[in-house]
Amino acid sequence: MFKLFSKKKLIKKQDYIFLRVVVKALPKKYSYLIPQVCEEFILDKKPNQLGDKGTYTLSLNAKLESNFSNKSLPQFFVLKDVYVWNMVKGSFEQIELHILEGMLAGFRVNAKYSELDFNKIDTLKIKEKHFIIEEKEFLKRLIGKMPEEVYYQLEIESTFKIELEEENYYVLKDLKDGNYLAMDEKGAVYAMIHDPYEIEKIFDTKESFFDALSTREFNISEYFDVKTS
Questions:
Q1: Closest CA relative to residue 151, chosen from 108, 102, 214, 101
Q2: DSSP string spanning 109-159?
Q3: Are 200 and 190 in contact (CB under 8 A)?
Q4: pLDDT band at 131 (very low <50, low <70, confident <90, very high)
Q5: How far apart are CA 229 and CA 43, in angstroms?
Q6: pTM of this prediction?
């Protein structure tokens, strides 16, 4: 019999090559992802309608999930600030990998594979974005009361924790392209700049930060525009 309605796969050979090269370039702690990038485990991909442009969800072989699933890892997190050189743009292209219980469950890339130089992958500033409600509650307790006009300039509800050099930072605002406004566990406020890479303490206390925002002495967008120009 003819299979008149057989589903055509969206995943291509180039997808496997791309994912394999990227995961091999990651720090050693993520080496558990390497054997997962194979046709036996990753069966297909589909556009993630809820994600940003270029975001895909991977269809995994349920029969092999027990070989790669790791319940000791966070249930879900995103590896951010991984960069691949775009030969057409002449700049680095940011990509993401989505990890579900230790399994590669999706990715985001906004470029054609033919435009990317797989010999130039930058993972030095890689970060994990976690989606844990405890982090939001911790940040709210750390911040305490704040003026309403300050609250609406930040993104407290979508915060996530960044771990760098054994220090924890909680994102106050994601300025995209690897740039963040964040607070440490003592209440100091930092600017995290991707290019050129820099972590700068801009306020020693949360009180001075809130006052500067309230009085318009400090403008978040203007500050980052100057730092990244």
A1: 214
A2: --S-GGGEEEEEEE-TT-EEEE--HHHHHHHHHHH-S--HHHHTTS-GGG-
A3: yes
A4: low
A5: 42
A6: 0.60
